[in-house]
């Protein structure tokens, strides 16, 4: 046994398993690659705090600042408490961040396929650094949005899935999500400190995004590119050497041959991976599940709970944000530990139960205590809402938060993996954009019943997991077709039809 690694025994797992050790190279590579999550989390967490800073609003949204100041000075009984944040300009600024990320992600499939996973992350780190500097130095809204366009890349979860051994792939992949939660918490603390620095505190908040980006650039120099990516680009010997390094053994021929075969299938597709992904029936299961997981993640109500509940406590909003941010980090650690033990389906179903209970409780409290003219919950009710918010965040962060990213990154075959991951991120950004652009307006109209709507969505998504989502834990990433999709009661029909089609087209010889 080489130093720095210990054996993973596959004896208890069905089907073919590849020899692998949890080597120092695997752990260090995945930890460094997951640093990209810090950037994503910081970008998410920093936006909400910055838009609450008067100096930032004065620079870019003076009309919003005027309304905010007037509301503080004069109690407006004619405006519903559910509508006081209903401002299209505020919504547009928040949602434009995700729209810009969607546009940037459209290029991720090409770069990961042509340049490789490692170099793509390096380019992403450089773009993030430039974007953070532009944001901090912005003098107008156009420069601010230009900086946002440079933020976003889908390569990290893909890198983690291809480097990690199947037995611990879920836990190492969720390191990305863990770093996202740490980035959000760090952004919350930065915003608190920067809000006391006038008039340029908001510039400090936005510029500090360059720190995790610079860390990603530094870490990327020490990463080994994935064997899958090297082999896909025709660099077979480099791919074999990389596989030996990350698996900690010279006996890699079975896994190497399987990756080579998957790469050959990718080359024989003779079309762009996006067209291949969309047109071939055997790709439907992964594509449908990836899209629906992103939709479900958004309609679960995480943005509503994280945004609206804390603003009810104007004097303790920082403490509420810090508490929920800390809960977010700790509960993601639960997912890292349990995802490869309990499995993906179990975590999603259990998380759905607790999310449903907390959403229903929040809806009841809002129905009783929050009216159009009063938002005074009182001490006891406020504690209850904070507890329910923490319960919801805790449940989401070890289930639907990380797993909606993990499952798509490990289920697409090599020939469509880059395109599939880009579609996953683009769909997530699209749904996030739509939700961010409309949430405050919907809240103004639905009021407390919006939490009842989220409860119904949680029930629907849990039923989908129960009926249609197969378990993927401990399955080698290149064996998903045979051991997952062809064994599922519903999805196997898409692969059977596809196999029959190839038998007919190739004169009775399937490939």
UniProtKB/TrEMBL annotation:
PROSITE patterns registered for this protein in UniProt: MFS (PS50850), SUGAR_TRANSPORT_1 (PS00216)
Domain Major facilitator superfamily (MFS) profile as annotated: residue spans: 29-473
Topology versus the membrane: Multi-pass membrane protein
Spans through the membrane: 89-107, 119-135, 141-160, 172-194, 200-224, 287-311, 317-339, 351-369, 381-407, 419-442, 448-469
GO CC annotation: membrane
Cell location: Membrane
Gene Ontology MF annotations: monosaccharide transmembrane transporter activity; symporter activity
Keywords assigned: Membrane, Sugar transport, Symport, Transmembrane, Transmembrane helix, Transport
Major place of residence: membrane
Keyword Transcription found: no
Family of this protein: Belongs to the major facilitator superfamily. Sugar transporter (TC 2.A.1.1) family.
NCBIfam families: SP (TIGR00879)
Name used for this protein in its record: Major facilitator superfamily (MFS) profile domain-containing protein
